[in-house]
Structures are given as C-alpha cells and as structure tokens.
Design goal:
- There is one protein chain.
- The protein has 647 residues and is of the alpha/beta class.
- The protein has two domains: 68-454, Alpha-Beta Barrel (TIM Barrel), CATH 3.20.20; 472-624, 3-Layer(aba) Sandwich (Rossmann fold).
- The chain has 22 helices and 20 strands.
- The strands form five sheets. An eight-stranded parallel β-sheet has the order 13-9-7-6-5-3-1-14. A six-stranded mixed β-sheet has the order 15-20-19-18-16-17.
- Strand 19 (564-569), helix 20 (577-580) and strand 20 (585-589) form a beta-alpha-beta unit.
- Helix 6 (172-178) packs across helix 17 (458-471) and helix 7 packs parallel to helix 8.
Length: 647
Amino acid sequence: MFLSNRSILRGAMLLASASAVVSAAAAPAKPAPEKPAFRDLNHNGKRDAYENPALGIDQRVNDLIRQMTLEEKVALMLHGTLQAEGGRGIGAGKAYDKAAARELLARGVNSFITRLGPDPQTFAQENNAVQQLAEATRLGIPATISTDPRNHFAVTAGASSATGGFSQWPETLGMAAIGDEALVERFGRLVAAEYRAVGIQMALSPQADLYTEPRWPRGVATFGADPATVSRLAGAYVRGFQGSAKGLVKTGVATVVKHWVGYGAEPEGFDGHNYYGRTARLDNESFAQHVAAFDGALAAKSAGVMPTYVIAQGVTIDGKLVPQVGAGFSKPMIEGLLRGTRKFGGIVISDWAITNTCVEQCMAPTAEKPQGFAIAMPWGVENLPEEDRYAMGANAGIDQFGGVDNPAPLLAAVKAGKVPLARVDQAARRVLRLKFELGLFDNPYVDAAAAAGKVGNAATQAEADKAQRAAQVLLENKGGLLPLAAARKVWLSGVSPQAATEAGMIVVDRPELADVAIVRVATPHEMLHPNHFFGSRQHEGRLDFRADDEATTTVTVAASKVPTIVAVDLDRPAVVTLLKDKATALYGLFGASDAVLLDLVTGKAKSKGKLPFELPSSAKAVEDQHPGRPDDSADPLYRRGDGIVLP
C-alpha cells in the first residue's frame, strides 16, 4: 500500500488525538500546533516557489519541473481513467475505486477522465477524495479531472455520459438549429459552473467536426454541416466554458476541441473507434472546409485540441500527401498545420487508446469472441511496437496520451533516445501550466454540500428547457394544423400519455377516436457490427424510412384516420420522404422531452430552429454523395436552413 509522508503524519495526528482524549482529565490541554499558512504539497515544511500563489505561473512551473524526476515528467503525459468501485473497462459507476486511484497517482499519473454518474453531492465528495490522494503524493500535484459531455439526451459509451443530475439541454445539433452564439456561450458558462461544482475542470468538448457524411453516428454532438456556423458556435462554446474571449480563467473549465481534423468524412459513416472505420475520404477543397470549422474555437484560445483517430485520405499539406496514419501520429497535422499554420499554443491530448495494440479480437471480433474491452485505435501504426507508437505520437506533437495509465512504454522510448528529453519537458510544462491556470495547486477541493444547489438547479433547467423548445424544427404545417387548441382528443405513439394529460389533452386508445394523432419516431438505423464494442452501441447504416418499417406503418395507419403530427428524432439526417406526404405536421427534433414537444404542438411555446444539415431525399442520394463535402446529396428533400417559425 502506498503511504506518503503526509499520510503517515495524518495517522500520527489521529493517534495523538486519541491519546489526548484518554489523558484529558489528568493533564491541562495544550494548544494545537500551528498549521502552515500554505499548502505544503511536497511536505518539506517550507514554502517552495510552486506552492506560492503570489508568483507568476512560469516561475512556479520552473520550480516544480526542477524538482521532478524523469519518471514523474513522463507520467504527466498520460491521461488515464478513474475506475469505479467493482467495475472494469470505462469507469461507469457511482463511486471511485480509491485503491486503483491511489495506485495511478503513485505512478505519477494525475490527469483522468471521469465517467461516474452519482448525485451531485456524492460526485463532489468522490472528486475531493481523489484530490486528497493526489495531495499525499511526493510533490502533491493535483488531479485534473475531465469528462465527456453530460448535459444532452444522447448517451453513448465512450462518447458521452448520462446526465446524473446535470441540467439537460438540446443536443449540440439543436444549439446549431437555433444558431445563437449568445445562447451557446450562456450554456457554456452554466454548464461549466456545474462541472466545477462537482470538481471537474476539463471538458473533452466541443466537437468542431464538420458533419459531412450523414450516416456518421457522432454527428449529433457537432454543430452541423456548415463550416462558418460550426466555427462561430464552437468559438462561443469555448468562450462560455473557459470564461473569457481571451482564453481560460481560473474559475472556468478547460475545453479540448476535437477531433483535428476530418473526422466527419468517413465513408458509409463507419466510425473511427472501429477498425473498419479507420479512414476518412476527403480532397484538399473539402479538407479546407473541415479545417475552417475549427477557426472559432482556436481563436477563442481553447486550452486543448484532440486529434482524430482517422487516417485522412486524399489530402496534401504543403504539396505532400499527409502520412497515412491517424492524426495523433501525424507531425504535419499537429506540429505543421495546428501549431505552425494555426498558431495553437495549448495542450494536445490524443484521443483514447491510440497506442494500444489492436489484436485480432479488436480488428475482427466474432460472436464467439466479441471485442469486449479489447479497445485500441492505433490506425496506420498497427504493426509498430507499442513503445514506437508512443515515440511517434510524442514526436508528432502529442502532449498527453488519452485513455492509458502505464508510463513504462513511453519511459522506455525516452530512455532509448526515441523521444528527446526536451520534448518531454515541453509536454510536462504544458500539462502543469494548465493545472496552475485552473488554480488547482492553490485549492483543488469543492464544497460538496453546495454542489446539489448548483447542479441542475431549477433556474438553470428552466433555461435549458427554453433552449429545448427553441431548438426544434417545424418542417410541415399543412392547413395550419398547429398550434392545436387545448383539450383535444389525441392518439399517441412514442409519446408519454402522462405528459399529454399534463398538457391538457385527452388521450384515447384508438386513432379513430381522436381529433389528432401524435407519433414520435427515431431516425432509422441498423446494427451492422454487433461484435464490435463501439459498433454495437452506435447508430449505423440506413437513414431511410421504408414502407414496411414499424414507424412508417404506424404513421400510415394514424394518417388514414386523423390529421397526424409526426416528430422525428434527428440524431442523423433521416430520409423522411415516405412520411412527408402522410404527415399533416412534421417536426425534426434535436433533443427534446415529450413535455417540450407537447408545448410546441399546443402553442405554449414556439420552435425557432432551422435545419443544421440537409435531409436527403433517398437512400441512393445518401450513397452517392461525397463523404467529405457538406450537404452534398442530390435533390435534398429539405435543405440546410429550412424550418417554419409560427407567428
């Protein structure tokens, strides 16, 4: 068991306290020893420069770097996972495995993603416990705790987390449908306050990926298909979370804009988390649009950038074909385009598990041997030894490797001369600087009792609900059906009867008894790769409603009896051609509760959204479009920007 001098001291203090209770009647009380007036992080009884908040960050970083061993510097270059009690894999649960956290901190790893999902007070207590363990290490370097998005409706393992009491907003696509920079910045500030209240200081977001291949399952967390809109809103997101238009402030949340660059251009929409989705198809013209989508976030000085998994095919930089490796291993992509051309000066964090070995079970899992937790994304460098993958990534410009917690392979690469010591120092300085900028060396703890009042409170949720109402897109309103008068008889499919009753409607059990039908359906999808960890969790395949689909049949039956309102959850751009003629009113939804949908239907609220991407007219149009070019299908049924706003 790892015990620091601080832990031993605390144990001695507890024993002394117990002894004092026993002898209190026999001896006069002695005054408690004075505590240092500073956080003695290295437990040496004196204030070192890095412990002094009155000094500049550069001076504090220099002092700390001077005291660090090579092993400790290398460990700073890993961004691990805080495991849950009794769990394994991605760390989902209600409490941390403290022994596992202590072991990681003892290795020198002190940056982590959290996928915990307890109530806010418990969450804050758990993160405080991690900071206590960090304080007990040799140098007391505080933990940086990051998270994937947790304030939206869509939840996919490895990409987003359940809300866990956090305010619930429309999807990022819904924010794009509204198109209001001020709203996105306001969202960022409110959500950042929730994060900091529970002890999270880093957002692994926003996605500034350009959503160009409509079958891609990660597009729901983007700002859509228009480079200018993505740039504008991603910049607002960064300003909101980080607290300033000039970069990160101490009370803000560091953003890591992702995924640099071209992730949204994957043929057939197959995602880069999977071996079968390891490439993106672009050309120089479309690639320039994907790059431009990041301009706003970079201008707002996002603290971090995360390179994409995928291999960009068909792209040249400075007249040379980019290396056919994932962007995390590509020096032209990171040191050249990002740092050189785009002048990015923050931290570069790799996407998760790019240095892991993709074994046969990872590349080609079967029903008998599914992928499970054999997760790895070393695309283009699969045949390199693990040590060389770390070296290639570090030399390309990676400052932290995500999703790994064993420093040994990177340390071996450094000791073998494959990674210069200057590169290690450079990365370590960037990691430490960010911790200082966040104020973690001065106080990493949060008020757990206050967390419940700050996370998901009524005032914040009221703003989130207002955004949900605004974000939805009305595409058809034939005959002026909407808004409905109150107390109408309704037949429902996919909508909560309780929500309808609370909205003042009378719910009936057959369409022919109703005045109107309301049918809510999901965008079609298929499970094409059930044996892959991510493929089994992602929405892949077709987008078109077909005649024999249950959703189409339900709409057809209802529409034959009464006027029918159809609401389609557009996590991807559905082909709604078969529904359009049958629906009297048609909504595209981008993250809305049933209550919000019914508020729109009854006129208690008005949707303001415009489509953030086009809706193709057929499956063939989807298949024929270029995956790297925005809004590229022939004769779309609805164009980007379409949407009816009722008077």
